[in-house]
Design goal:
Porin, 10% helix, elongated, disordered C terminus
Length: 259
């Protein structure tokens, strides 16, 4: 909340000082991010988002302040291979039910909301301009609370370890939430036509994931046991890629209307 307050304070100050053109802006984007220097560097996420907000245009650049919605899902996951086959070209793995294990399966799906600030350098008459952007998001809902995670890798898995017996209980890390998904990126803004722009960016992302470690037997209720287990934070450093488009709607600023 402190970071969101600082973003809002900075944006309000910029609005008060702005002498230039004001626009409403909206857009859509897709992203891909890969863990790089934390844990086992195994987490990979992809998804898309929507944003809307205000753009303040000055002679030497423009600032955007946006509310952001983002959908995110895992790209990789873990499934234990019970058997394998070779068709002369490729090896295929199968689980205990005889189903082929796919390379990708969406298990962890989350919805995020937050704020972003973007500053684009250069006069608006230029077709290609560099930008920097910061974004702070927090998870508002997920389908995967208490879902299985591969320990130390923190990627979704389909089954826990163990057999659920007294001397061989089930064991797994459980996903709880992602209270913070933030990023700082740089890239280029390309004007495709008037008020319609393409954005390509790359940057650094930082995530905090809350997880639990649980052991339980087959006759026990995992959900009930998990309620009393404290969470621990997992810190992840990510490499982010983003591609999006934005559309601006010109409007008169309050200061302009008085002149």
């Amino acid at each position: 909340m402190k970071h969101l307050f600082l973003l809002l304070t900075f944006t309000s100050s910029f609005i008060a000082l702005s002498q230039e053109k004001l626009q409403m802006v909206t857009g859509i984007s897709g992203f891909f991010e890969k863990e790089i220097i934390s844990n086992t560097r195994s987490q990979v996420y992809g998804g898309g988002g929507l944003h809307f907000g205000l753009r303040f245009i000055q002679d030497k650049g423009m600032l955007e302040a946006n509310f952001v919605y983002q959908f995110s899902t895992n790209v990789n996951y873990y499934a234990h291979a019970d058997s394998s086959s070779f068709d002369g070209k490729y090896y295929k793995d199968y689980d205990s039910n005889g189903k082929e294990i796919r390379l990708y399966k969406s298990l962890l799906r989350s919805h995020f909301m937050g704020l972003s600030l973007k500053y684009t350098f250069g006069n608006s008459s230029k077709v290609v301009r560099p930008f920097i952007m910061s974004q702070i998001l927090s998870e508002i809902s997920t389908n995967y609370k208490n879902g299985y995670l591969l320990e130390d890798f923190y990627i979704p898995r389909e089954e826990p370890w163990g057999k659920g017996k007294m001397f061989d209980p089930f064991y797994s890390h459980l996903y709880y939430s992602t209270p913070l998904a933030s990023s700082v990126s740089t890239g280029i803004d390309i004007r495709l036509m008037q008020n319609f722009n393409l954005n390509i960016g790359v940057g650094y992302g930082f995530r905090i994931m809350k997880v639990k470690s649980v052991r339980w037997k087959a006759d026990e209720d995992l959900q009930e046991i998990a309620k009393n287990i404290p969470t621990k934070n997992v810190y992840s450093h990510m490499l982010d890629f983003e591609l999006g488009v934005s559309y601006a709607i010109p409007m008169k600023s309050g200061r302009k209307s008085k002149e």
